[in-house]
Each structure stands twice: as C-alpha cells, then as structure tokens.
Amino acid sequence: MGGGNGQKSRMARERNMEKAKGAKGSQLETNKKAMNIQAPKGVTLCLNKVILDISTGCRGIQAMEASNKKAVNRDAITEEVAAAFAESNVIPERYYRPDEVNAGIVVGYDDDEAYELPVVDMGRLLDPELAGAEIAKLGSACRDWGFFQLVSHGIDEQVVNEMKDSTARFFSLPLESKKTVAVRENGIEGFGHHYSRVSGKLDWAESVILVLFLILFQVQVAVDLNSDALDKFSVEMTSLTMRIVGFMAADLGVEQEALVRAFRDSRQNMLLHHYPPCRLPDKVIGITPHTDGLSLTVLLQVDDTPGLQIKKDGRWFPVRPRQGTFIINVANILEVLTNGAYRSVEHRVLIHARKSRTTVVMFHDAHIDGMVQPIQEVLKHNGAEARYRSIEKLEYMKGHFSCKVCMQTFMCTTSEVKCREHAEAKHPKTDVYQCFPQLKK
Ligand SMILES: O=C(O)CCC(=O)C(=O)O
Predict the structure, then answer these.
(1) Which residues pair with 268 in a beta bridge?
(2) Which H or E run includes 307?
C-alpha cells in the first residue's frame, strides 16, 4: 500500500482503537450496574429483576418468552439425562437421530481436495502495509464461507485462559450444583439442554445460556463460575467485535461508522456448551443444523476436540480446531445488514466417541434504530435494491424463534421468496403462512 493509504489506515486504526476503548468503558459501567443490583433471594426473581433493569434487548426476550410459549424449547437436565450421557451404550429415543447425522456428505480432512477454513490475521489487519490484502481476505471469507478463523487476535491470554478454566470447572461440577442455575420452564437462560425441536429430539449437549450482565450475578451467587472471568471476557469480545466490524465496513466500501453503529450498545449473549462423548457418535447430534440469529458470533474452543461442521455448496466441512484462534461467523442480522453480501451459513456439531468438547460462544446483536434492515450506505455503495424487507427487532426475534420451531432459519421471515420456497419444499403439508406469520400472502 502507498503512503497515502497507509496514513488513512493508520488513522482508521486509531479511530478504531478509540471506539474499542469507548465500548469497553460503557460495557464495564453496565456490568457494574448489574453487579450492584440488590440480590433478591430467589434465582427467578433475580433473573426477572435484572431483565427489567438492564436493557430493552432483555425485555424483548422476556416478552417473547411470555407471548411465544415453548417457541424456544429448552429442557432441564435430569439425573436420567446425566446417566445417559455417562453411559451412552444405549441411546434414549429422544436423542436417537442417525438420519440427521447422516444427512449430507461430509468432506473428510484427508480428501484430495485440501481445504482449510479461511484464516484472517488481526495483526495484518492492523498493519497499514498489509491491511488492504487482509481486508479482502476477510471479505471473501464472509462472502464464500460465512466463517473464518481469527489468528493473532491480540486478546489477553490470561483473560482467555480464565474463561476456559471457568467454563471447564462449571461443567465438571456435580449436577446438583449446575441445577441451581437451571433453565426455567419456557425460559431461555440458564443451564439445560440446547434447543429441542418440534420433532421432540434433543441435542447431545448441556449448555448455559446467558443474556449478558444478568446471569453473571446469579451464577456468582449460585455456583462456582468465575464472574470476573466472564466480565473481562465479555468486554474483550465486544472490543474484538467492534474491531472486526470496522474492517468489514472497509471491505463493504462504506464508512466504518455505518456498520459499527449498528453494533454499538447492543446485547451480547453468551453460550457455554459441553458436549459429552458418546460411544455411538453417529446416532446423536450435538447441535442441530442452524444459522445464528443475531449478528456476529465469536467462538472460543476450550479443548481440541473436533465437532463443528460448516455447510458449503451442499456439503459439510469439519472445522479442524486450532490453538489460539477464535472462530468467527456471520449471523442472520449481519446478512441482512449487508444486503446479502455476507452469508449466514448453516452449521452443526457432531459428537466424538471418546472425548468431550467444550465451547464458549458469544453472540453479538445489532440493529438500525430498532430495525433489522439493509444498511442504506451499503445499498447506495452498490446501487442495489434492498433484498430484505425492514422488520422491527422484536418481530424479528419472534420470527427467528418461530422459524426455529419449523427447523428453518430467520431468512425465511425477511426474504419472502426464499422463505416460501424453503418452507414449501421442507414442509409440503404445512400451512406456511401460519408457520411464518411475517409472510405476505
Ligand atoms: O459449539 C460449537 O461448536 C457451535 C455452537 C453453535 O453453533 C451455537 O451455539 O449456535
């Protein structure tokens, strides 16, 4: 890159750093506020109180839980479930899903066609001389794969290690302790199974879902999950997200602010997953194929057990775990914000026969003044028509979850044509309008 460009990149980088610092500050403040809330006695009360006090995003979830009974189906982990996980010689009917495991071709690591999930280097993104080429790499990863691995990310190793340790420690606790933060009936947050679907089949996993800020407090009171580690990690993940999004804006040819502002002060959800090993791994599924509902997902793998698979051109590509990286993926809202330039791609988790797998996943939300819609600047830059209609955030969330019930993705509710074709093909006997109320007849 020439000197002029180099200087521009340097200035952009400095602006980026300032913004990241700003994000850190405001998030820490909010965290502190959350921690200062007087502790009510019961866990449920605690959840409710913080939901009401912290952010509209959380209120949205609460309203959705009330209005959309069982739209998100999470079940408590019982002694029987824990015993099934421990034994795994005989798979209980509710976990038995060999057809789903075998649906689609899996590209082997050793197949002729050598592949590796694109690698993006934060060090190079931040280097004015190398930024141009690396931004192009980031852009093509988001267009072609919807996923990339981030190396040289610059996140404090101690923060990452504490998060890993804390998560591993939590899942190693006796069930009795983990149940003190169990998911409530019809609820989303807390410890339980990952989503079960209309089929009634359950994922071979135990997970904790945290809508940021609120459960930190609850978990600190209830069990040995290090809330300080969560707090620091969450702050780091916000700054990292802001930095990545700034580079995405550069790739999309718009001002950094056009995309960054959609993420600013937005909710962040954290999921901790533990996938126990299963002696019959081709009979169970760790996470059903899905796309992510929010905007940008950052995944940290605690160990080196493989399991994540990404769909590309109709085939499943297993991700090879790589030390010191984060796996980043475009989620549904970012696909809409970029008017489909970046793709939110289906992925799933399969189970290992002997080794357990643990991950920490941060989901970052975004919206444009409360709406989910393509960014004007992106449309202008490309002289393109909006491919997605504008939808209110709460409507979006309802649509996203009702789609989950139908094992569909949110794109169904924003891109009507895609939805109708998709729904009719997958559910020939279903009234698609009842299934997706957002569709226009
Ligand atoms: O644990 C993983 O590898 C993937 C998790 C995931 O896809 C999710 O939480 O939505």
Answers:
(1) 364
(2) none
44 vs 398, higher pLDDT? 398
Nearest to 149 by CA among 307, 274, 298, 268: 298
Ligand 1, pocket-test mutation among 171, 330, 346, 347, most atoms within 8 A of CB: 347
Paired with 296 in beta bridges are: 330, 364
Q: Which residue has the tokens 């421990």?
A: 86
Nearest of 114, 135, 136, 113 to residue 126 by alpha carbon: 135
Closest C-alpha to ligand 1, atom 1: 359
CA distance 183 to 146: 31
* Amino acid type, 405: V
Task: Tell me the average pLDDT across 118-146.
Answer: 98
Phi, psi angle pair for 78, to nearest 5°: -100, 175
Q: What is the pLDDT of residue 435?
A: 43
- Would you mind telling me the total number of residues written for the chain in this entry? 441
Strands (E), 214-321: 268-275, 287-290, 296-301, 308-312, 315-318
H or E segment and range at residue 348: strand 347-349
Can you list the positions of beta strands (E) in 356-406?
357-364, 371-372, 391-392
> What distance in Å separates the CA atoms of residue 69 and residue 72, rounded to the nearest whole number?
8
Please give the domain boundaries of the chain with CATH numbers for all domains: 28-386 (2.60.120.330), 403-441 (no CATH)
Say what the pLDDT of residue 133 is.
98
Say what the pLDDT of residue 423 is.
Answer: 55
* Alpha carbon distance 368, 382 (integer Å): 19
Kindly state if the Cβ of 319 falls inside 6 Å of ligand 1. Answer: no
